[in-house]
Design goal:
The protein has helices spanning 11-22, 28-46, 56-68, 72-91, 105-108, 112-115, 123-134, 140-152, 156-160, 193-206, 226-234, 246-257, 262-268, 287-306, and strands at residues 167-168, 173-176, 187-190. It has 318 residues and is mostly helical. A three-stranded antiparallel β-sheet has the order 1-2-3. Strand 1 and strand 2 form a beta hairpin. The chain is elongated, with a radius of gyration of 22 Å. It starts with 10 loop residues before the first helix and ends in a 12-residue tail after the last helix.
Length: 318
């Protein structure tokens, strides 16, 4: 329902009129994504303004707000959605032009595959990717590495160098030593029940050695950095579509869209957001919320994999 007190020709009123027309022919998941982006990002920022008064600067504010949350793909889509509503308003005679055309996205957003690497981020497409991984016919170790990459979204080098001694199944966590981390600080990865099951599946195969994912050459080294990307190519994903690093942007985008707190997501991604003045770096920060989030994430991926209609983890952006 439209919020009360909105004048007849505000952006939200016209946006909802446009949505009612275009969503009639959309798939349920597409409709839900569009509605969520409007309600979480766009309407709170500019919904109350008359559609005729909106400027490129107003739209830029929305795009930059989403970019700060790390959801580049959503920022691009928001630009497109705002433009479509504005052009609908122009057609109805409620605005004279579409200011989204004055915004050159390439000038304000980093290229998708530079900062966030090529990645599948639409829920339906993620479900397809997960089903493809389940059907992978190469080595068990490679399939398990792909499955775990989606669940724990660590950097590819951190996954390849995972050692059995770093895992504690009783606590359901993986502690990555500081020396292996980009920020040179210890990192805790809470393990969902699904992640533990994958590790237990591969344990009989590699558990007697040092690395969880050893090189197939048997030379005592970890899996090659090309193995995961090579497997994605075999599954039919071009390097412009998905990479081993792309599981991180996939998780960042979808967890933000599901309304989980930005600080918890960033901490689990081990991004370097911290106060330079603060004396200590707390690797256990937000740990209870991170444990809960990692299990919710694994359950959400299971639902996407089975193609179920997915209910958001939380109904609003945090």
């Amino acid at each position: 329902a439209v919020r009360t007190g909105l004048a007849a020709n505000t952006f939200e009123v016209i946006g909802r009129e446009w949505y009612a027309k275009v969503s009639a022919s959309m798939a349920e998941s597409t409709k839900d994504n569009l509605s969520r982006r409007l309600d979480a990002y766009i309407y709170p920022a500019i919904g109350h303004k008359p559609i005729s008064s909106l400027t490129a600067a107003d739209l830029m504010g929305v795009i930059e707000l989403i970019e700060k949350r790390g959801a580049l793909d959503v920022a691009r889509r928001a630009h497109n959605i705002m433009g479509r509503i504005l052009r609908y308003g122009v057609g109805r005679g409620l605005a004279t032009r579409d200011p989204s055309r004055d915004i050159e996205l390439g000038d304000i957003l980093p290229p998708a595959d530079v900062q966030h690497h090529a990645s599948v981020t639409e829920p339906k497409a993620v479900g397809g990717l997960l089903r493809a991984i389940d059907g992978f016919t190469g080595s068990l170790a490679t399939r398990c590495a792909l499955c775990l990459a989606a669940l724990v979204f660590v950097r590819p080098g951190e996954l390849r160098h995972a050692e059995w001694t770093e895992f504690d199944f009783e606590k359901a966590e993986w502690r990555i030593p500081a020396a292996k981390m980009e920020m040179k600080e210890q990192h805790i990865v809470p393990l969902s029940a699904q992640a533990v099951a994958i590790l237990q599946e591969i344990q009989p195969l590699t558990g007697s050695g040092r690395y969880v994912f050893p090189s197939e050459r048997g030379d005592g080294r970890p899996m090659s950095e090309n193995t995961v990307n090579g497997a994605l190519r075999r599954l039919g994903y071009a390097k412009e579509e998905m990479t081993g690093h792309g599981f991180r942007s996939m998780a960042s985008t979808l967890l933000h869209e599901l309304g989980l707190p930005h600080t918890v997501i960033e901490r689990q991604l081990a991004h370097g957001e911290r106060n330079k003045v603060s004396a200590a770096y707390n690797f256990a920060e937000h740990l209870p919320e991170r444990r809960k989030m990692m299990q919710q994430w694994a359950d959400y991926l299971d639902k996407l994999k089975t193609g179920a209609d997915v209910i958001p983890i939380r109904g609003h952006a945090a």
